[in-house]
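Bumping with the actual sequence this time:
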Amino acid sequence: MAAVRLGNSFLDAPAMGQKVLVIVPHEDDEINVAGSVMYSYVQKGADVYCAFTTNGDYSFWARTRMHEAWRSLQTLGVQHVVFLGYGDTSNHYPGGHWFYSPEKAVTAPSGHHETYGCDNFPDYAFAKRGIHRPYCRKSMKTDLKDLIEDIQADIIFAVDNDVHADHRATSLLFEEALGELLCRPGNTYHPMVFKGFAYCTSFGAPKDFYADNIKSVSKPPVCEDNLIDISLYEWNRRVRFPVFPACRGFYLRRNVLYQALFQHASQSAALHAVRIANGDAVFWQRRTDNLAFQAIIMASSGKVERLRDFKLLDVDQIDDKKMVFADYLWQPDDSDPDKIISYRWQQPQKIICLRLAGNIESTGRIEKLALTFDDGTHMILGPLPGCGHIAQYILPEPHIVTSCSLQILKVNGSGWGLSEVGFFASLETRGVITPFIKIMIDDDFAYDYRLPARVKTCQLKIYRYQVTAPVVYTVVKGNGGEVGRNGLVRFSSNSRQLVIRASLKGNPEIYDEIHLYRESSMILAKRSIVQWLENKMLTFYLKKYRKYTHIRHKYLKQL
């Protein structure tokens, strides 16, 4: 059977006219966080923007990092590149991180105290307003707000709270900036927002590229420097995007992500391609259509603004490996007998579901709440799940209301509170990404999938994004095999290749296809040997290239 072009409704859907914005701290994080999705949206015809908050100038000159980023993004086809121009700072930098300075300029390790650019890459504030901004928290948030407003992206992919101080600062200030925009009176801008990690699911992931079939991102181990399975970061609720053929395959040197990483010579980033290139791209979605952002909120006590800041968690100290959470909850006073929070809107709102999240710490939790609408509806909710996980309550029928209230009735332990209260007019986010499915084998996204010839059956599973209906499987090419309604593929003794299509029952426009190969042990062994040789040769070459690059840096400073 000749090579088959495999269909997938997400990858096949055009995105002309859409805008995609990627926000990361350092030059090379664009690949760690969103390399494959940027490439996907370029191929789909979208306008893709990539913004770097820092110049990456901790060890190398800014112009070196900027030109490397430009060449890397050109490899992916990204044409719009923005540099905010802030200083690259290490954890526990003695001079102090700009995150800690509300308005007073601090001096970065590079010696700069205000935003700057180089050559054809001016810093964003200078390009927009003809000024350089001081290195402080207020400046960064202002630039992020301006950037989001200027581009008005349909989809935003942003870095999340990795262990690096610059990553945490970028993540937290992005959420503050977007939260202020969402709370503007009469706001109608509701982008689809996805947060992703540069480290635990990418740069620090296992070296798993060289395998019989492309591996999906594996679940990071539990450790103090990642947030997996707390707050919204439940692993089974991650959003997984399929990737184009150029981002997968058997050989690294042909992979467009490797080619893009190779441009970041100062970081020897290509050495990490074996960790970064996977069969899916993993994010956590943040809803921006919360009706509470446009409500007048009052509470019987406590700091109610923490329920309108778009942040589900917050920290005061961004340098420590372990995140210690601070000031992220609405907590009524202990002496407050009412413990009630109320919402009021200028116009009637349709509410279909409610989302609540409590505290991340295990010291206590809210056991029971009362929800009351102004139409007379009264509901008892709870208990809230632990670890700050989000609980969604679907109302039996939509309610058209102008006010409502939540009252805490029963608690257990200490340190309890609410990190999010969300009211929504739809069960799922409405945006430019339509629902899609992807066929899996085990927990890996399957594409061109190789199996030993002795295998007689193969179990398929389905990943769903915003769909719940069953799927229909069909064999569209090949013979000597069949697939049952439960996704079990059975091969006959002479069956070598099958192309299987899964489509949503009642909606065949949502579909996915995979190509199954049954190969002899000799062919599988030969490919493994070639992969092993490529791995050894590329690793040897890249380490020598790293040594050469760092010698040049030592004596010439600029690459």
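The tokens above came from a reply further down the thread. The chain has a mean pLDDT of 95.
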